[in-house]
Amino acid sequence: QAVMNAPGIKGRKVASLGKKSSRSKEEEEGVMGLIQSIVKKQPEGQQDPFYVMDIGAVVALWEKWASSLPRVRPFYAVKCNPEPAILGALAALGAGFDCASRAEMEAVLSLGVSPDRIVYANPCKAEAHIRYSARAGVDLTTFDSGEEIKKLRKCHPGTAALLRLKAVEDGGARCPLGPKYGALPEEVAPLLEAAREARIDVVGVSFHVGSGASDVAAYRGAIAAARRAFDAAARLGLPKMRVLNVGGGFTAGPQFAAAAAAITDALRSHFPDEPGLVVMAEPGRFFAETAFTLATNIIGKRVRGEVMEYWINDGIYGSMNCILYDHATVTALPLACASNPGNPTCAGMKTHGSTVFGPTCDALDTVLSDHQLPELQVDDWLVFPNMGAYTAAAGSNFNGFSTSAIGTHLACSGPP
Ligand code: PLP
């Protein structure tokens, strides 16, 4: 109930999904049925793309996190998807937030979240944004250079700071972050000394093994490196470090159990007997990816021999920028099949190698190539599941197709 009353959700229409006699047939059929009913109700000639966010999926992920990593407090990475409904749901559940900029801090604070639930986790910040964090009372940030310490001294001398380490990164991560961020092992002691001179309180360390990590051993290696940094601080006679931020990189699939086990095991080995240690994380993809489904309309078609070509009203410059920037693979399902319980996968239907283009005039704007689809018509709908992470958040307005104008409908799957 607290989630349904959360800012970002309260006052918006929420469809209840799943089996219950009082629900409409479409709602009983879940997200796809709901999309079908939204499409049916759209006014003639207005087939704009839209998202459906399943609040029940976010709550289930929260429970999964809490049972697998009870010692690790999640600070949701707002950059992954700043839709107010996911921020509101996670705020109501008790999450903290990882913000990278003034606008992200403002978005979270406007939901009534107190500033002590925010980590300003951008190791290189503009002075104006640091000054804003000081005024707003956001008193925990990250750094990985001497220049950043000088800016903190100048603009927010009272902040606590986490030294971002260059993690033993997962080489197979979808988006490695190591080339850009993190102190090298030999830089750790000099940076701690520089912070001491500037009277910046370094309360712990952070790292990020890379977004979309696939090798959970990376967490083990990074936690071992964190231990070495804690020991370096102790050797320098600094106050005992008390915060370990294990960053993001988590996915909601079966691999999460392995990542959670690796972290739990590494904490036991490298930080035994430290009950006062605060362990936090900055998951983005874990909470957002599977909770959002995108519905797009087919606005054009061309038949080239055996190949079917379709144009849809969202693309590489919009939600599907994830194909370029997040190295994502997207999947499209015709709504007519996905919402048909008798044949949800279009099984048995003749399919064609199909190309799906986005709406802009750039040939790069190609969403899928040689994708098997049954023959579709202009005005049919293509649905893309698992579209919550690094999608709309990084889309543009190129060619006048506004990503930020794509609306989000709310639904809640739950017990029947
Ligand atoms: N924290 C920081 C500092 C990041 O840069 C990112 C992603 O770029 C995240 C957290 C979220 O990572 P993920 O979505 O892989 O959990």
From TrEMBL:
This is ornithine decarboxylase. InterPro entries: Ala_racemase/Decarboxylase_C, De-COase2_C, De-COase2_CS, De-COase2_N, De-COase2_pyr-phos_BS, Orn/DAP/Arg_de-COase, Orn_de-COase, PLP-binding_barrel. The active site is at residue 361. Homodimer. Only the dimer is catalytically active, as the active sites are constructed of residues from both monomers. Residues 57-288 form the Orn/DAP/Arg decarboxylase 2 N-terminal domain. One of its GO terms (molecular function) is ornithine decarboxylase activity. It is an enzyme of class 4 (lyase). Its EC number is 4.1.1.17. Its cofactor is pyridoxal 5'-phosphate. It holds the Pfam family Orn_DAP_Arg_deC. Residues 50-388 form the Orn/DAP/Arg decarboxylase 2 C-terminal domain. Coiled coil: none annotated. The modification N6-(pyridoxal phosphate)lysine is found at residue 79. It catalyses: L-ornithine + H(+) = putrescine + CO2. Signal peptide: none annotated. The lineage of its organism: Eukaryota, Viridiplantae, Streptophyta, Embryophyta, Tracheophyta.
